[in-house]
Design brief:
Length: about 300
């Protein structure tokens, strides 16, 4: 536990030293992310793990869903994988999520992206296909002739040139040696993913769908769902009533909301609270009585500006 905490603190320091705004850390057990980091228009969703193999498919699905909806790039920062340390300059994929060492992260934030991808036990590099083709033709080499020099098939050379396949690390080095030019393209680990499949929302959120919102549930996060509609994405938290735990969760939600620049609201089963720790609170009965999405958004905006705890 202490070793992961030390890694977590070092990762936070990396972002702070680079001038990133960081949300409060998520302290939920098995949370799909630890914090958000923003600098200008770049928004990153960060998960810190000592062993990247501990990332579950469920966590990865929520990570992709949240990142895609909020326009964030997800990055897992770790130390090890299946018995060995992560190498600097290498990207490891786990359930489609980029996992890197803290050194690789720090270099990428400075604009020095990693060059290698570790996949199924091997190391691969993405070749600049257009440059490879240009160099081959300038050298008057056919694909079969170049393939023989590089120790691969002519079909492989064709795929490298067309961007249809990555080369092994050894092949990439051979091609660079043949032409005396760098051919490996760096890997941008700060890419926003495509949206992952979403399960049906819980019954308590179905009314939001009938108002025209798209509701994307998440399981291990400080919020219960992402609610999309009227050109907005709202961080949505379900709660039975305004307890001390809900107040604490609302404070974390406010920090995340500020960092990702999205509004948030708490949907209460019962109670009179209108604003909890700076987050608008709306009861299920009020949502049932609202006739359109715009009216709910206006109510959330109004209550977000009220004094915390308003309404008792």
């Amino acid at each position: 536990m202490q070793e992961r905490l030390n890694l977590f603190l070092r990762v936070q320091e990396i972002f702070e030293n680079r001038g990133y705004e960081i949300s409060e850390a998520c302290v939920l057990s098995n949370s799909c992310f630890d914090f958000f980091a923003r600098k200008g228009e770049r928004l990153l969703l960060i998960k810190v793990l000592r062993n990247i193999d501990s990332l579950t498919e469920t966590q990865a699905g929520d990570i992709r869903r949240i990142a895609a909806t909020l326009g964030a790039a997800p990055v897992v920062v770790g130390e090890r994988r299946s018995g060995e340390a992560l190498h600097e300059g290498v990207v490891y994929l786990r359930h489609g999520i980029a996992c890197v060492s803290e050194e690789t992260l720090e270099n990428a934030l400075a604009g020095e992206y990693p060059a290698l991808l570790c996949y199924r036990g091997g190391y691969y590099a993405s070749i600049d296909g257009a440059l490879l083709k240009s160099l081959r033709e300038a050298s008057r080499l056919s694909r079969p002739a170049l393939a023989k020099l590089a120790g691969v098939s002519a079909k492989a050379i064709y795929k490298y040139e067309e961007g249809e396949a990555s080369a092994t690390f050894e092949t990439a080095l051979k091609l660079e040696d043949i032409f005396g030019e760098p051919l490996v393209k760096p890997i941008n680990i700060f890419r926003v993913p495509r949206a992952a499949r979403s399960a049906a929302p819980p019954r308590e959120l179905m009314r939001l769908r009938s108002l025209g919102f798209d509701v994307l549930p998440v399981r291990k996060a400080p919020f219960s769902a992402l609610t999309k509609g009227e050109g907005e994405v709202l961080l949505t938290k379900l709660a039975r009533c305004c307890t001390r735990e809900v107040v604490e969760r609302a404070r974390l939600l406010r920090s995340i909301s500020t960092t990702v620049k999205r509004r948030a609201f708490i949907l209460l089963h019962s109670g009179r609270a209108k604003n909890i720790s700076g987050i608008a609170a709306v009861t299920r009965r009020e949502v049932e009585e609202i006739g359109e999405a715009k009216a709910l958004l206006e109510l959330i905006e109004e209550r977000a500006t009220q004094d915390p705890g308003a309404g008792g």
